[in-house]
Amino acid sequence: MRYAETGFNLEIDLSRGSIERVATDPRDTALHLGGQGTAAKILWERVGPEVDPFSPDNLLIFSTGLLHGTPVPGANRTSVDTFSPQTDRYSHSLFGGFFGPELKHAGYDKIIIRGKSPDFVYLWIHNGKVELRDATHLQGKGALDTASTIKAELKQPEAQVAAIGLAGENRVFMATIEHANSSASRGVGVIMGDKRLKAIAVRGTNDINVARPAELFGISSPMYAAIYDNPDCGDLLAHEDDEEFHVNNFAWGNARERQKGYWNEEREEKWTAVTESVRLRWTGCYNCPKDCHMAVSYPGRPPYFQKCYSKLTYAMAAYEEIEFNYDILGVTQEHGLDGFSTPQVLAFAVELYDAGILTDEDLPDFPPDGAGRFFYLVEKIVRREGIGDILANGVYHAARAIGKGAEEYDHNTMKKFEQVPLKLSMINYPYFLMYATGEKMNITQIEGSYPQVPIADPEERKAFTERWEAAPERFKEYFMEWEPRAHPTVEASINIADWNETMHYVDDAIGTCAFLSSFTGQWAGQPPYHIHNLPAFISHATGLDLDSDGLWEIARRNRNLIRAINVRRGLRRSDEKPPADHWKKRDPEMEQKLLDAYYEFKGWTNDGIPTKQTLDDLSLGYVSDDLVERGILSGDEQSGSEATVGASAE
Amino acid sequence: MTDAKGTAARMEMAKKKVLKHIKVDLDKCIGCRACEMACSAFHARPRFSSTNPARSRIRVVIDEKNDMYVPIRAGDYTPAECTGRHKYTINGKEYNECSFCGVSCPSRDYFLEPDSGLPLKCDMCEEDPTLEEPWCVQVCRCDCLTFAEEEDDREDQPEKRDEMEIGLESLILKHGLDKVLDMVARMSSKG
């Protein structure tokens, strides 16, 4: 009997219309846990570097986390893994809500989709009954509208649906997959659309068993209060009406300029009133007491859910006020557009128009105002009409297709992907490393355990570290030594970058929400889940006997496997460059020194490739063999293994 | 206990009977369904050995587009659907009468064991040992579900009547005493 997981994946071939239920190898669970980890292994084995993301051979994998459906509160983030046409690299996203737990109750740990359907279909999974159904009548429908239509036609109000909107259908690179109150961003919807899969509906009514039920309930039950009562976890910004930090510090337009002093009391009152007038209620995700998602009803728009930082991204990119943001979200959520990257693409087009690079010929009847222009561009993009066809490929590719100097306006992408619109003054060592080397494409998926700012008062600093249960010991020392306006040392910086991303690799394998763990320790050092308490949850749920070092090693294995996937597709040190203007004051010499040290610490070559020994030590011998066979590794590269001894939970 | 003393004692007990309530504040529900998970696990045999919201005796009826989030608890079983269901509009949201109904009935698959189809009923977690608060209430941190106990203040509790007595009385009402006696005599003579 398998615990916490079902032991079966669903394999769907859309070209042939075939559906198989395939047993999985429990050794993969022991090595990778689940979620992103086991998905990475499948992508490594089955999608070679020669496979174009738009090829039928590309896979689109929906993974439950290992703890989905168990009593562990806050385990509900589904991982979506594939290859991106925008970056030509590994593409990963997560969405909360209810989909993963429902899929597991239906009897599956993953849905692995290959091939391409000739016409739009949707997948209906009802326990052992799985079928592909015609979806041509859903074409053009909004993502949330599609979900309610499917539930009605199946007469299954309790089914959970993940769907794409018009953006995904038309292979817009910023396309999301929308589900209930959540979205999978970072462009995974483009592959779902390319495969002509409009939606997946799932209903599951099977039991999920755990290895040590009494013990698991014993430690899970107190977590409801621990999470609910903890003011420093969950989406802190969601409930915040004081937007000063974001509107004053994040860049407006196409990640272009800061508006210091934009925020004032009058504006706060006005914005709060608007937010309260459109809010229907706060909602949460499966089995989590935090209410991070706002159900919104904006006049004239269908109801939708606002989450995360999308609250401000459109308004700031268009130089508009918050009403506009709520208004356009009512359109973009149904189209299934990423609230991070889309506003930048729209603002980029506006900038090009203002600079005369795009003209009235490209943008006939282009409205004069920011709001009007954004609505205009959104419709062009999701339909790939005219200039929209070029903009739909994201800033990097659009800049090159447009030419005429448009490349200069592509200043906020890295690895061809839109980054958070932050323009700061002084280089930050750990952040340099996280931006440069991260492979989850957005800093929010990499940062989060180590505080962003030091504490000036030594007593407060000491108190902070004394109650800092989440941190391995060495971080307490780094933090004690960290004075305001000083850089952490190189050693501290590489450890901080490593710990931050390691925790995301843990979350994304077991399905726990980053707002309860990997993204959350940075505020007060008190994430409900951390490297020291998670092993007990995983062990009791699965029967695997994991300790903190064991969990850390699995996270390193998953991280190195994903590194290898991208290395095999061409990723090298030369790609690991944050946007040039991300910091005003750069330190090129130090940056290279940091990269040298970090690669060595990670057990990678000086070109950012995991060495044979690093891979072999992580039971990834089949990966190192492949890299050697391809001539990517010689096999004799110096190992950084001595340095990596430091990378542990203690 | 047919004597007067016994009856009095029984009346006394009935007077002191405590009624348990789970109060539902619809405005506070965030739709997380922790109550469903918790209920299914608490009632699993052995306790906590599995989770499965489909077996839960509390369900959250959710219609996201209509902003409807209604936790309902399993009540009695009924073999027939009711007719003439009503629709209510509250604060601009349309609710079907079923949204508030805890009956397990043929018109929906709430409160039916997914394997056997047998009806489920909320027992307020009155197992041995009885929980201080039902499990669903304990996991509902946003206080949509709250537990309340109040004394049953009804003075004259009718004595609980025997099922056969109720059945026979209704047959007599419908068919008359003679017909019922005839039928009983005929059935008993057939052996």
Map the helices and strands:
The complex is a heterodimer of chains A (650) and B (191).
Chain A: E1 8-13, E2 18-23, H1 26-32, H2 35-46, E3 60-63, E4 78-83, E5 90-95, H3 99-106, E6 110-114, E7 121-126, E8 129-134, H4 143-154, E9 160-163, H5 166-169, E10 177-179, E11 182-184, H6 189-194, E12 197-203, E13 208-209, H7 213-228, H8 244-249, H9 265-278, E14 279-283, E15 293-296, E16 304-306, H10 310-318, H11 322-335, H12 341-354, H13 370-382, H14 388-391, H15 394-402, E17 413-414, E18 417-418, E19 424-426, H16 429-437, H17 458-466, H18 473-481, H19 490-510, H20 521-524, H21 534-542, H22 548-568, E20 583-585, H23 588-602, H24 612-617, H25 621-629, H26 641-644
Parallel strand pairs in A: 1-6, 7-12, 19-20
Antiparallel strand pairs in A: 1-2, 3-4, 3-6, 4-5, 7-8, 9-10, 9-12, 10-11, 14-15, 15-16, 17-18
Chain B: H1 4-15, E1 18-24, H2 34-42, E2 50-51, E3 58-63, E4 68-73, E5 87-90, E6 93-96, H3 135-139, E7 145-151, H4 163-175, H5 177-190
Antiparallel strand pairs in B: 1-7, 3-4, 5-6
Helix pairs in contact in B: 4-5
Distance between the termini of chain A: 33 Å
What's the helix-strand series of chain B? Answer: HEHEEEEEHEHH
Q: Note the overall shape of chain B.
A: globular
- Any idea what the radius of gyration of chain A is? 23 Å
Beta content of chain B: 15-25%
